[in-house]
Design a protein that fits this description.
Layout: E1 6-8, H1 16-30, E2 34-38, H2 43-51, E3 56-61, H3 76-84, E4 89-91, H4 98-107, H5 112-120, H6 125-139, E5 149-155, E6 157-166, E7 177-185
Parallel strand pairs: 1-7, 2-3, 2-5, 3-4
Antiparallel strand pairs: 5-6, 6-7
Helix pairs in contact: 1-2, 5-6
Bound molecules: flavin mononucleotide (FMN).
Flavin mononucleotide binds at residues 38-41, 43-44, 60-62, 94, 125-126, 128-129, 132-133, 153-159.
């Protein structure tokens, strides 16, 4: 089977529109219903919603306190649009850092989960994010684990990576399968 992968010259938010366009095409080709989007503010999820209003979209943001205090980084204007369209906006612990980050922050060293995250980042930040948010969404009961979904992730803002994957729950993490890479930054 031959398939196309779109490689971006640089990582970052400027690739967002192209990723969404490619996801729309691949979704139609494969008949995929569920889309999981990493969207800290909610902005990228609104863009995905505007392009694919018939999809079952889940929007995942950073856990409270990621930037300090107890704050969330969601922006109300985007949350309202997502709420009105019935798109769940999920806030929870990050599956590829979790308490592991608290341990390494306090005692130094690295936990196995952080090594998994580092290994996935060998593809791109976004590939790591796609895996992470799919586990989070599956554990929240927001996506199925018995069929393929499309996940979108990026480098700090927007999205530059999209993959077709079969999700899994935390307890059987290694059953997750990355079946297709739709787009990723090359460097
Ligand atoms: C749970 C979670 C983990 C993330 N981890 C990373 C990361 O490790 N590296 C990175 O560059 N961006 C990370 N991001 C950012 C996303 O990849 C993406 O660029 C961002 O959520 C887009 O948000 P926006 O819609 O506000 O632009 C993460 C986002 C979420 C929600």
């Amino acid at each position: 089977m031959e398939k196309k992968i779109n490689y971006f010259e640089n990582p970052g938010i400027e690739n967002t529109e192209k990723v969404i366009e490619l996801v729309k095409e691949r979704r139609e080709e494969l008949g995929i219903e569920n889309i999981v989007v990493a969207s800290v503010s909610g902005r990228t999820s609104v863009k995905v919603l505007e392009s694919m209003s018939d999809a079952l979209i889940v929007s995942i943001t950073h856990h409270a306190g990621f930037k300090g205090g107890d704050d969330l980084e969601l922006q109300q204007e985007y949350v309202e649009k997502l709420d009105n369209a019935g798109v769940p906006v999920y806030v929870g612990s990050h599956s590829l850092s979790g308490v592991g980050r608290g341990i390494s922050n306090k005692f130094g060293g690295v936990t196995p989960v952080e090594i998994i995250a580092g290994t996935l980042r060998m593809f791109s930040q976004g590939v790591k994010v796609c895996v992470e948010i799919s586990i989070m969404a599956a554990d929240a009961g927001l996506i199925p684990t018995d069929k393929e979904v499309i996940a979108l992730g990026g480098t700090a803002q927007g999205v530059d990576t999209a993959v077709v994957l079969k999700p899994a729950h935390m307890g059987n993490f290694f059953d997750l399968r990355i079946n297709e890479i739709i787009a990723m930054p090359r460097p």
